[in-house]
Amino acid sequence: TFTNNTAAENGGAIYWTAADSLGHTVQMTNLTFTGNVANGDSSMTAEYGGGAIWSKNSSSSGPPLWLIANSVFKDNRAPNGTGGAIAISSNGTLAYASANAPHAGGVVASHFENNVAGGASSADLRGGSGGAIYFHGDALTVVESSFVNNQSVNGSGGAVANFSPNPSAPAVLANVTFYGNSADQNGGAVANLRDNGQITLLNDTLSNNTATGTNGAPGGGAIFNADTNAGNVKVGNTILASSTGAGGNCAYAASAVPLQDLGGNLQFAPNAGCGAMLAGDPKRVPPAVLGGPNTFVFEMD
After folding, report:
1. Residues near 140 by Cβ (< 8 Å), separated by ≥ 6?
2. Which of 257, 184, 254 is nearest to 227 (CA)?
């Protein structure tokens, strides 16, 4: 358990900068991070922060691979930076990758609640982004997890902000619930902030998230995409519903392209921006506490 720890710059609880050419893994299971603070100054670099964890690859010999399972991140803050709970900067890897199981780990069965990134916004969109997770690296995988009431105060990606330009290793968010997350700029739940960035959403629920769209930002309460390559943002078997603020459920940068509909998706008012996917009321109820580290899931009427 890591509670109420403070860092002047990065990683309120854990700071990790290392390289590994052998494919070893940093494994964390059954942990709780509560009330940790990283006071990184975004005027120094947009990637300071990581209220609970901050990681960066320090060498060309390869980053460590991360596996975080059955863990809780609650009330962590990066008041002047990115990543209220976790910030992965410059080539870090938040995934467990191997020849037999590429990207089979990352964040598994974990819960993120009330984490806050408060850094100033920036022209490249990354400043102050990632209320729960800010990612700029080689691989990101989040499965069977939940994000509730996380916030990017001035930036984008109320829950998850992806700034990775790596087209060979898309971020994968599968069987994940996003509820009540908010961003001042774009992507109340999820923001893909960079050209060539890739995100795949499978079997997810994005509901009641908000993107304010300050200063003319496109918004997108559920998801925002800044990528110009068709098909780089893919969505399948996912609910995008009841977003508030600017841009409806889905929004895009001026030069970006809409998401690729893999089928089985459902959008509910406001529908603007999500393309021709099926529209209808998913009969949602609020998240319920069911016990265990990943406490919030959606039940359906």
Report:
1. 88, 94, 95, 106, 133, 162, 164, 169, 171, 172
2. 257
* 164/171 Cα distance (integer angstroms): 9
Confidence of residue 164 (pLDDT cuts 50, 70, 90): confident
Cβ contacts of 123 within 8 Å, gap of 6 or more: none
Nearest to 249 by CA among 175, 171, 190, 173: 190
Instruction: Evaluate whether 135 touches 88 at the Cβ level (below 8 Å).
Output: yes
Cα gap 159→190, rounded to integer Å: 6
**Whole-prediction pTM:** 0.91
Q: For the chain, give the number of residues.
A: 301
Does the N-terminal peptide bond of residue 270 adopt cis geometry, omega within 30 degrees of 0?
yes
How far is residue 159's CA from residue 223's CA, in Å, rounded to a whole number? 10
User: Residue 184 pairs with which residues in a beta bridge?
Assistant: none
Kind of pairing, strands 296-297 and 288-289? antiparallel
SS (H, E, C) 278-293: CECCCCECCCEECCCC
Predicted pLDDT of residue 292: 56
Mean pLDDT, rounded, for 255-274: 83
